Fold this protein.
Amino acid sequence: MGSRDETGSLTGVTHFIEHLLFKGSERYSAERIAQVFDTLGGELNAATSKEYVLVYGRFVDDQLPKAMDVLVDMLLTPTFTDLDNEREVILEEIAMYEDSPQDLIHDLLTETIFGAHPLGHAVLGTRETIGGMSEAEVRAYHQRHFRFSDMVVAAAGNVDHDELRELILAGHPRSDSNGLVPVHTPAEITPRRAFMVKETEQVHVCLGGRGLPRNHEKRFVLTVLDSLLGGSLSSRLFQEVREKRGLVYSIYSFASQYREAGMAGVYFGCRPDRLATVIETVQVELARIVTEAVPTDEVERAKEHVKGRLLLGLESTNSRMSRLGKGVLTGAELLDLDEITRRVESVTAEEILELAADLFEPSALSVAGIGTDETGFRAAFENWVPGNPIDSVG
């Protein structure tokens, strides 16, 4: 369960609970939890996404029994100590996030693309929802959704599968799932535009639209496309907009994949007086990527970048653990390295062109901006493809 499974006044409750897991459990106080992992010479952390919440630790192998005991107790029996204090911490986190327009712009784009659909909700929630949640509501949500029978345990490193399995099941016998299968309705995506007025030195812009679901057959084509468009130092956007023209410090493309939907887009930040020139350059590159076949050498370079990034990532036990856990939890196809490499290498220029035309056609993209000059933002997009009027938000 993640933030997309929350409704109404409980938006942000999963992330709230993630914080509260560290405030103490039935058998371990908050201080004791910290002391145990410090003594183990390890680290302890957590994360919440739109589709799951993750608690993870890293420690020396012979400390597995103790570490697992603490982790499971944190997840299953939190005491919700200092709930109101932690509420204030999250409100500060929301304020900090809103002071980071290069991050906030992605939430604005997501909301612009998905609208009222649950995928459009911010993981952190809002000031109103976090401020209004009662302890009873938080406890009830945890009781419904944080059950041992619905959890996935993944591990990587010097660990024995059977030993880990017995270790977990010894204290928590198998039980039936709670039967709460999320029902996800498809998102209806219509190109929209939005602008948030905020005191910033730069204007931050995201262009994006429909992407691919997590298990889509063309997902490896998208990975290569993302690399050559804006996902590497030699990518078209980075080279044309930053290296050759010096118009931005940061520009990149990105892709997010969910169970039944996805999102793909481009981000950049620049000084307001350069906005029109940056948009014009980005528009030219998008037009190229959707109408012209990518040269063979560029395709091969992007493939090598994708494979290299994958190999380097797998050197980390944390990455291996996350990949396994997320795959099982979300029902993603688990492939070995050889099969992944084969699928990346099989991507063709024709497939890239076809997918680019499907996902990055400018008329299909939503636009989100954050900055001080809404009038300048509107003027900069006058020559963009026709679209809906720009909505002012915030």
Q: What stands out?
A: The mean pLDDT is 91. DSSP finds 16 helices and eight strands in the chain. Residues 156 and 316 are 9 Å apart (CA to CA). Strands lie at 43-48, 53-58, 193-197, 203-210, 250-257, 262-270, 366-371, 390-393.
